[in-house]
Amino acid sequence: MAAALQRFTLIFYAPTSAVAACKSAIFSAGAGRYPGRGNYTECSWQTLGTGQFRPGDAANPHIGSVGALEEVPEVRVETLCVGEDVVKRAVKALKGAHPYEEPAYHVIKLENY
């Protein structure tokens, strides 16, 4: 029996104005697809929150000013990536679409039970 592809959750945070572009980019890279007979695509979960950061001296912030503490309405987006190649492509696509110098994201490897 063939081994099942590894599954990952990709989670990222983006300002509300950039969420649609970021989701489009990761979905085009293969994120958000659930294997199975339903053939679901572009699946994600999101919630609104507040991001906080203080840009350092060498920063070129998209929002805010160097040295100033900034609080920004941001959206947390979670989606499934099936296969290590898919999660790597999705992260690359996210970095290309996201307006921040250093987008906040993390990848969680899931167990298959």
Automatic annotation (TrEMBL):
InterPro entries: DUF34/NIF3_sf (IPR036069), N-reg_PII/ATP_PRibTrfase_C (IPR015867). Residues 1-20 form the signal peptide. It comes from the Eukaryota. Keywords: Signal. This is ATP phosphoribosyltransferase. The keyword Glycoprotein does not apply. The keyword Signal applies. PROSITE patterns: PROKAR_LIPOPROTEIN.
